[in-house]
Amino acid sequence: MAAMIDLFGSYIFGAVLLLLVVGLSVRFSTSRTTQNLDLIAQQNLSAIRAELEQDMRQAGYGISAQNRLLYADTSEVVFAYMPSTGTQPTVVRYWLDPSFTNAASANPRDRVLRRFQRSATFVGGAINWATETATIRALTTSGDGALGLVRFRLDYFRGDNVQTTTPVSATDRTSVRSARVQIVDESDFGLPDDRGTWVEGGKKMRYGSAVWSQVIFPVNLTLPDPGGLP
Question: Quick check: 120 and 91 in contact, CB under 8 A?
């Protein structure tokens, strides 16, 4: 009888141990998947950040003060700079497309950030577009799909670090000296998780996420206007 009790007890102990091992394995697998989702979001954010930051740091180069910053709002910015090898200014526009979410992504919050670039001249402060074909593309999609942008916001500051109202008026644009960029990126697909933030199809979902917030100081916005520039 004692032997049967010992045998039965060993079965119970073995079953409990097996359940613990399976539970740890599931947690480890979920943790690895979650880390991979965060890594995807971080890599996607790096791709968006690199191009946007490079463009914004060129804003105003070789351009008169009135034409350096052409439009500035929380979800859109338009600025100009003179390419080092060009004879006409380049106008660049970034804007968060309000018309639709990103169809290339399984993430319902994924948005499309677009980038426009074209050569131009200025006549009396107005843009006179050159004949070159404009380049308009979705910055937050790649050949492999979406890049997971879910939030994009811009705020602008004068030289005294006072934040401007938005959209920035034409008279205030010449006083802008810096811009704060805030981007939240998520993975373009999620993982069912009871601790997830979003509910989709009756299930909580967990998406990888990465955040970038930085104040950019385009040095050319701080330079005095020497005159004679486009």
Answer: yes
